[in-house]
Design a protein that fits this description.
Largest sheet: 4 strands, mixed
Radius of gyration: 22 Å
Structural class: alpha+beta
CATH architecture of one domain: Beta Barrel
CATH topology of one domain: OB fold (Dihydrolipoamide Acetyltransferase, E2P)
Oligomer: single chain
Number of helices: 2
Helix content: 25-40%
CATH class of one domain: Mainly Beta
Strand order of the largest sheet: 3-2-1-4
Order of helices and strands: HEEEHE
Length: 98
């Protein structure tokens, strides 16, 4: 009887430790992208951008538009890199990471 109790105690402690470590991680990322806009967006329609969290499964950039609705774009797209370069020249340091 002693061995099953010990095994059960170890199992309970292990589950508690896992639950505690998962709880201290905090919530997941606020925003991740799964669908991407492939067509270039005019610079005049974009007021800023944010990089998504590294915890997201897809690396992405969220373009903040004048109308307020963010667009998900691929950071590897050449037109996105040019747009980010232009935005950084106008307001460096105005980006944030989600």
């Amino acid at each position: 009887m002693s061995a099953p109790r010990l095994a059960l105690s170890v199992l309970v402690l292990l589950v508690a430790a896992i639950a505690l470590s998962e709880g201290t991680r905090g919530g997941g990322p606020r925003r991740c992208c799964f669908d991407f806009i492939e067509t270039p967006v005019a610079r005049a329609r974009v007021v800023g951008y944010m990089k998504t969290s590294q915890r997201c499964s897809n690396p992405a950039i969220l373009l903040n538009r004048v109308k307020g609705h963010p667009l998900c774009v691929r950071p590897s797209a050449p037109w996105v890199q040019k747009l980010i370069s232009k935005l950084d020249k106008v307001a460096p340091g105005q980006t944030s990471h989600l």
